[in-house]
Amino acid sequence: MSSKETIHNHNKELARIFRQMADCYSYIGPDERFRVLAYETASKTLSNMQEPVDELASDFKKLDELKGVGESIAEKIVEYLQTGKIKTFEKLKKKVPFTLLELLDIEGIGPSTLRIVHDKLKISSKEELIKALEEGKLEKVKGFATKKIANLKQALKLDAVKERIPLKEAEKTGNEILNEIKIIPGIQQCMLAGSLRRKKETVGDIDIVITADEKKWKKIIDAIKKLPLFGKVLAAGRTKASFILKKKNVQVDIRIVHEYELGAALFYFTGSKEHNIQLRTIAKQKGWKINEYGVFNEKTGKRIAGRTEKEIYSLFGLDFIPPEKRIGKNELAKAK
Length: 336
Prior knowledge:
The chain is α+β, with helices and mostly antiparallel strands. The protein folds into 4 domains: 3-95, DNA polymerase, domain 1 (Orthogonal Bundle); 98-155, Orthogonal Bundle (DNA polymerase, domain 1); 165-257, 2-Layer Sandwich (Beta Polymerase, domain 2), CATH 3.30.460.10; 271-334, DNA polymerase, thumb domain (Beta Polymerase, domain 3, 2-Layer Sandwich), CATH 3.30.210. The chain contains 15 helices and 10 strands. The strands form 3 sheets. A 5-stranded mixed sheet has the order 2-4-7-6-5, sandwiched between helices. A hairpin with a 3-residue loop joins β5 (230-236) and β6. α1 packs antiparallel against α2 and α1 packs across α6 (111-121). The radius of gyration is 20 Å and the shape is globular. The two termini are 23 Å apart.
């Protein structure tokens, strides 16, 4: 990885952190609306910057003059560049049910809904919410109408009536969707993931990973929402969207990432779950963490791989493992 790419990634990493901080403050409540706006603005500024923010780290005045970046946020930028972490963000993640916040993209699910789930049922993670849905606990909570519960179940892939379609049919449908998406202005790459990419005999949903310039993400998601192939919108945020196909009761999940994150996103969203867990366990032993954005040094936060899947496997001293062989058994040992 070149030093230029590392510098470039600091802009994007900080932009993501500030977006997540805005989500945290949004969850805390309306009294924090000014902080929400401040961090959202700072995030957009960093996303759109051509100049690496690192070059301004030694000039606090110039940092302070950036649109949406006041003294407090400038201090946090410097803190991140020096230590790889922001203490305020680490505290916020402990103050709110952080892993639940990714559900804000689901249609009809806002901060107040998540607060009810957390306060009434003591739910702090997506896994706990799935269990509560399966046990019918949300039906007893005021504010959870049948439609909202149905949306949650579908978005979290718990809909019992969802069809499973043969691989050949899924490939045909998946490629039709890719062809529609590829012509949207701003799309760089568009690829199938999930069980379809692993060539399972039947497929329950279709996963797609897209790369594009971050400035165009919202317009791309908006354009995808208008495609005639899709019926019901389950979730539509800045980086992801979920739909039900018009002609089949099949869910399509779309994720949009930076070009340098494509390998990590493909690995993460291809699975299998068991295969991913095995590699995450090895990463933890080495002091690394692996997610849909890349492989990172857990202590410093520095990104060490993720542009391609081959780069990720190579980092672990492994040959590339084809998607259809990622079953979570002994394929990692064989690939050494």
